[in-house]
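Work Package 3 (structural annotation) set out to generate three-dimensional models for the target panel prioritized at the project kickoff. During this period the team completed the workflow that converts sequence records into discrete structure tokens, so that structures can be stored uniformly alongside our sequence database. As a representative example, we reproduce one entry of 388 residues exactly as it appears in the project archive.
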Amino acid sequence: MGIDIDRVRAETPGCANVVHLNNAGAALPPRPVIDAVAAHLRREAMTGGYEAHEACADAAARFYDAVAGLIGARRDEIAYVENATRAWDMAFYAVPFAEGDRILTTTSEYSSNAIAYQQVARRRGVTVEVVPDDAHGQISLDALAGALARGGVRLVSLNHVPTQNGLVNPAAEVGRLCREAGALFLLDACQSVGQLAVDVTEIGCDLLSSTGRKYLRGPRGTGFLYVRREVLDTLEPPFLDLQAAEWHAPDRYEPRDDARRFETWERFVAGQIGLGVAADYAAALGVEAIEERVTGLAERLRSLLAERPGVTVLDRGARRSGLVTFTVEGHDAMDMKLSLREKEINVSVTVPRAHGYFPDAPESAVRASVHYYNTEEELGRLVEALPR
């Protein structure tokens, strides 16, 4: 049936103030999320934090069912984590690496993840190998198959949607190859959950990390981790507390038998409630409808930009997402971002050279990331506001 754009814009207060094309940074939250978070914060202020949590335990627990349903998981495979970085870290550092193990990643890897690879390589004696791109700029499945066939791969780790260009890596095909080779598969989905249909069973990943603030339209300071039930007992989080494990005095502990072994007791409860509401909101609209709307708007924006003299669209990939990156000849990306903000148009600046393994990548570019509540009129306003 499609998405009722007038309704979702009416439910998004920020749409009245700005043309928001920075959804890959932090999307505008809908009214139900705003109300849920604000209501719980008011309850905490009036009754106390612990008491508010106890009174709203069902609303907080709804998060597990909402997120699990959105990505095709089971509720005991979901952990609430304070952000996507911590979710990814908890998964990565739980892998029992041994000297000689191999980590395979992609050329467009996020720099924070790449730093973690090198840290573990130095500590554990593992090697980090970058799988080359195919002709479209995404991870080469043939090269990945060859690298897996050589053996010794402990982990394949890559991003679903890179932060610095518009491609979508072929995650399901990567998952199939990992299962055949018996390698763990960690998928960084912080830019894909909420804009693309993401099903962990179809993808075949063992671990998936994501955030609340981006395309899910949830609160900042929220995220989640998916851990496939069958690999849970092989992974011990890098740190544990009384939420994650049970203490048996005087010298023994036992981690939880579900994904919540990756949580900590203290948390942003209002954020957990809000993230559950955000997941339910996306599910009600339909992930397929969202993907169709987002990718359609992004392709329309690329077409408009391509018609503009001096503009170069940088996006790669056989399949592309809602992230649109471009440069304008003779103009600095940061200057354009600030100029557009004065006109109430939000974009961000991406630094491709600071991510991945591309020493010859552009120094900086404008990144306009669309969401389903954006309109074609807003895309036209962006293009017309660019310097000539």
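The chain is about 40% helix and 15% strand.
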